[in-house]
Amino acid sequence: MRRADIAGLVDDRPADGVFRVHADAFRSHQVFDLEMATIFEGGWCFAGLDCQVPHAHDFFTTRIGRQPVVVQRGGDGVVRAFLNACRHKGALVCHLQRGNAKTHSCQYHGWAYDSSGANVGIKLLRQGEYTPAFHAESHDLHAARCEVYQGLIFVSLNRDVPPLREHLGGMATFLDLIAEQSPQGMEVLPGTVTYTYRANWKFQVENTGDVYHFTSTHPSYIDVLSGRKAQQGAAADTTTYARFREKELVRGSMCFAGGHSAMWGSNPTPEARPLYESLDEVAARVGEARARWMLYVRNITVFPNVQFAENASLQMRVIRPLAPDLTEMTGYCLAAKGESPAARERRIRQYEEFFNPSGLATPDDTTAYEDCQAGMQAGRVDWHQGYMRGMAVVQGGGDRYAEELGVVPQTSAHGGFEMGDETIFHGPYRYWRDRLVAGA
Amino acid sequence: MSALLEASALLYAEAAALDERRWDDWLALFTADCLYHVPAWRDEVTPTEDPTREVSIIHCSGRAQLAERVQRITGGRSVASMPPPRTAHVVSNVMLAEESDAALRVKSVWASHVFNVKRQDQHVFFSRVEHLLVRQDGAWRIARRHALLLNDRLPTMLDVYSL
After folding, report:
1. pLDDT digits over A341-350, tens only?
2. Is B85 on the interface with A (CB under 8 A)?
3. Is the CB of A195 less than 8 angstroms away from the CB of B44?
4. A50 at the B interface (CB within 8 A)?
5. Which stretches of chain A drop beneath a pLDDT of 70?
6. For residues B107 and B128, is the Cβ–Cβ distance under 8 A?
7. CATH topology of domain A45-160
8. Are B57 and A221 an interchain contact pair (Cβ–Cβ within 8 Å)?
9. What homologous superfamily is domain A165-439 in, according to CATH?
């Protein structure tokens, strides 16, 4: 694709009060291939959690973009990432989702690698009558960049990228708000649920920051909560959404360099949060302002492939694009280490009910993405108009809430629950456009 | 009638109520304090076991929570739930694991065929199911339904009619 064609997919004219994204961004195979090469395989992507590889030689396997990757803690304690492809014929050398192994032996011709990805054996090497040119080559598994922030492991297949901390920028503070909820840190609970949907991956990026959809996409969930309230009274206020319409709620958004975005909102039922029971300890440790922000509703996207939604419960979502119109999602339930058994169980039930693809809310989101993808097959659908709510109030830099939190975003906006801000999508699409243009 | 026949008849009645979308009949098969549980998987071979500390695909305590799902499925306010899919639940390999006058533990295998009419695509969810049946008012009722879903990479979504 020509650079001008890619740049033209985002109609970004703030002076005219216009921001639109073209439907081809969601349905073009050429755009998808470029996204894979330049964004998912050309920069930092989330890979997994430090706590999934606690001991020497622990590993998990994943994909970065389209490429199979092993993330492993070496005998020296360092977490590394390397391609899960034998240098001999390209076969997978590691076959499990996770485990512990000092070596990986290819089961085709027997080449072996240690837990840092270094080749430690070529079967019948001396007898092989190899040329000096062969011996001059590295036989190690291809290494990727791998860095960790707050227990989150990120991998870049492109080694020529800025340090992770620089890439995260102000988004790091939002990750701190998750990681520092317990003095012992966070853990991922056993049991993940994976699902696919027949629509573009960017619908998932958008939906996590989308306040506007809630009342029209989730009336059946709201009905369930209303029914419980009618039967049980205040005892039913066990989720963030139980009283979401009753008080004057502030909702805001921030966009950060690197395509990251955060939606936040004051919380009408902070006592429903598992964190609430330890609020005094948390405030003493991280300060009043950060403790308050920990209780806020926060939905964030670390561009391009990991999201943290802390509303009904705390979910980590990992996005894996498979095609322009097919995406795989995996959900993880995160929890503060050391919380009480009652708080833990409440957290899990809220998580399942809201976030699971078998729950009472997420299927309606996912089906809506599929309806978008199906509707866009109409050739007349060109410019989406879903990016302009909040444009009259969005400001460059940080608002007073950003100041309170101590972050410096590129843009920020805030208003009532019903404003349904859509400027939260501008930063991600500007970054997306710039990366694709640079990579074209 | 033998206990095995009685248990089989109840499982078939459950499958038929789901397929024919007779939701009141389906709910009536469960006890008020029933547990409806579909565990998730820890890894390739191990399902989660302790729902108080691990994630499940579905965990509903009590018939009232199942009724909430029925309300969502039938209420016309969930875009994911309409138009209704057509389903055929095939129940097989029914075996009695434990038997007493008051309770039966029943194992079975379910292949639940789901045709999504709107998308014109279909999927088979298959699971190993264990029912705990108890005698209430002279009839067997489901006190616990534990379905181990074996193909847990879910196409878009899953609800009680998919199991």
Report:
1. 998 999 999 9
2. no
3. no
4. no
5. 234-247, 312
6. yes
7. Rieske Iron-sulfur Protein (2.102.10)
8. no
9. Naphthalene 1,2-dioxygenase Alpha Subunit; Chain A, domain 1 (3.90.380.10)
